[in-house]
Amino acid sequence: MAGLFSPGLFAGKVALVTGGGTGIGRAIAGQLVELGAAVTVAARRPEPLRQTAAELTAAGPGRCHHLQADIRREQDVLRMVETVLERDGALHLLVNNGGGQFVSPAADISRNGWRAVIETNLTGTFTVCQTAHRLHMRQHGGAVVNIIADMFRGFPLMAHTGASRAAVENLTRTLAVEWAHDGVRVNAVAPGVIYSASAAANYADGLLEQCAGELPARRCGTTHEVAAAVCFLLSPGASYVSGATLRVDGAASLYARQLHRVPAHDRLPPYRGRAGPTGRAEPAAGSGRSRDREW
Ligand SMILES: CCCCC/C=C/C(=O)SCCNC(=O)CCNC(=O)[C@H](O)C(C)(C)COP(=O)(O)OP(=O)(O)OC[C@H]1O[C@@H](n2cnc3c(N)ncnc32)[C@H](O)[C@@H]1OP(=O)(O)O
Ligand SMILES: NC(=O)C1=CN([C@@H]2O[C@H](COP(=O)(O)OP(=O)(O)OC[C@H]3O[C@@H](n4cnc5c(N)ncnc54)[C@H](OP(=O)(O)O)[C@@H]3O)[C@@H](O)[C@H]2O)C=CC1
């Protein structure tokens, strides 16, 4: 990625990246440090955070701190933002990348499973945005990027994440308008299928590779490709971009591939009106089972 952005682009800037210890978040933090920022990575597991912070600081020229925080816990979020402000004296750049979900048919998602994903992806993101705004950005401005997902045509087998990411996209637009007056820009980045260790582990049995073969790009995206888009949106080059969603998916969201394939069936019978052209009601097409489902 060397040379893509001007060296020192983010020198003197303070950034917070949730979920910054691994995968896409780590790549974002890495690029910000490479461009001179003082970055804090925050998540629940201390070890990946510690290792990422050490490696990124060693690479410089910026620096990377780490902080344990669960974005589902309001107290953690408050402490996280306060710590950054006390240590670095500002918070210019916020990336809400922490999140996750699991693969499940909507019919089988437990109430607690639904709540876990919504509270992480939606409520967690909102809480971090609101806290950063209240404690600093309202007075001083800033730039926020929310990581969402390719949920534009629904998200079969991940209804919880589809619903929460769509909500965050809408939240992004609302905040872009409400906070323009405070000098805060808010944008979203929607990654398609991105190769990260976590994605490979959570979408096992070659699912990721299978998806990749069916994408317009015929490959997964890289974490660095997402990071580059985020850095652009955080940079002064995007000073007139707010409320936007940048899709980093190699056109996957425009293509008919779906993780879930609908098996052949005739359970959605057509409506044929009260009477056909002959004046008689048209007979229902398909099997007896199809007719059973007319209601
Ligand atoms: C095919 C390619 C598409 C690529 C698109 C996107 C890819 C990515 O986003 S990859 C990287 C994201 N990383 C992850 O998603 C990390 C793994 N996921 C999680 O950590 C969880 O999904 C989480 C967000 C729900 C974590 O919540 P947590 O509170 O830590 O989890 P709990 O163990 O306490 O469970 C709460 C609740 O959720 C149910 N549940 C959790 N995992 C599953 C599962 N795999 N299947 C079914 N249900 C699950 C769990 O059972 C709990 O509910 P109850 O049992 O009813 O109490
Ligand atoms: N890879 C892909 O194809 C896609 C990924 N995404 C999204 O991009 C983001 C990064 O994904 P990726 O890098 O692939 O996967 P990772 O699992 O590596 O990233 C998710 C990060 O979020 C952190 N996190 C999860 N829950 C919480 C929480 N409650 N509080 C704080 N941090 C939390 C995790 O750390 P910890 O568990 O230690 O808290 C982890 O570092 C995620 O939101 C993901 O859903 C969206 C579309 C596609």
From TrEMBL:
<keyword id="KW-0560">Oxidoreductase</keyword>
<comment type="function">
    <text>Participates in chain elongation of fatty acids. Catalyzes the reduction of trans-2-enoyl-CoAs of varying chain lengths from 6:1 to 16:1, having maximum activity with 10:1 CoA. Has no 2,4-dienoyl-CoA reductase activity.</text>
</comment>
<keyword id="KW-0597">Phosphoprotein</keyword>
<dbReference type="GO" id="GO:0019166">
    <property type="term" value="F:trans-2-enoyl-CoA reductase (NADPH) activity"/>
</dbReference>
<keyword id="KW-0576">Peroxisome</keyword>
<comment type="pathway">
    <text>Lipid metabolism.</text>
</comment>
<feature type="region of interest" description="Disordered">
    <location>
        <begin position="266"/>
        <end position="295"/>
    </location>
</feature>
<keyword id="KW-0444">Lipid biosynthesis</keyword>
<dbReference type="Pfam" id="PF13561">
    <property type="entry name" value="adh_short_C2"/>
</dbReference>
<dbReference type="GO" id="GO:0006633">
    <property type="term" value="P:fatty acid biosynthetic process"/>
</dbReference>
<comment type="subunit">
    <text>Interacts with PEX5, probably required to target it into peroxisomes.</text>
</comment>
<dbReference type="GO" id="GO:0005777">
    <property type="term" value="C:peroxisome"/>
</dbReference>
<dbReference type="InterPro" id="IPR036291">
    <property type="entry name" value="NAD(P)-bd_dom_sf"/>
</dbReference>
<dbReference type="InterPro" id="IPR002347">
    <property type="entry name" value="SDR_fam"/>
</dbReference>
<keyword id="KW-0443">Lipid metabolism</keyword>
<keyword id="KW-0275">Fatty acid biosynthesis</keyword>
<keyword id="KW-0276">Fatty acid metabolism</keyword>
<protein>
    <recommendedName>
        <fullName>Peroxisomal trans-2-enoyl-CoA reductase</fullName>
        <ecNumber>1.3.1.38</ecNumber>
    </recommendedName>
</protein>
<keyword id="KW-0521">NADP</keyword>
<dbReference type="InterPro" id="IPR052388">
    <property type="entry name" value="Peroxisomal_t2-enoyl-CoA_red"/>
</dbReference>
